[in-house]
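FORM 7B: Structural annotation worksheet

SECTION A. Query
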Amino acid sequence: MDTIDGASGSLSSAIIEGIEVNEAFLVDGTATIHYTVNEETVSETDQIVFERALQLTALDFHADELHVMNETKNIKSVYSLLNLVRRGERMLLSKFKRIKKVDIAFML
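SECTION B. Predicted structure
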């Protein structure tokens, strides 16, 4: 096991200023998150990190699928969490697969 010197490592939240989670729930193995984003202060990279963190969090709650609703852009992304490969305690983020991305404007 390796140790990390406190001065050489850092942690930060995936929910940065400019991202607001409006609603989150889990029903029958499907986790659903509704959020808004300030597009002037939050980059596309920040949003990708946020959605990956949501995927890992959904796994902690034993979700089979994750629905992420970006209410600012009216986009719904659906992630299958069953495609993950476990190797010990590591999750390979490259195995996360977005199975559907749709414009939800017509649903409003």
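SECTION C. Observations
Confidence is low (pLDDT under 50) at residues 85-95, 104-108. The CA atoms of residues 84 and 96 lie 6 Å apart.

SECTION D. Sign-off
Analyst initials: ____
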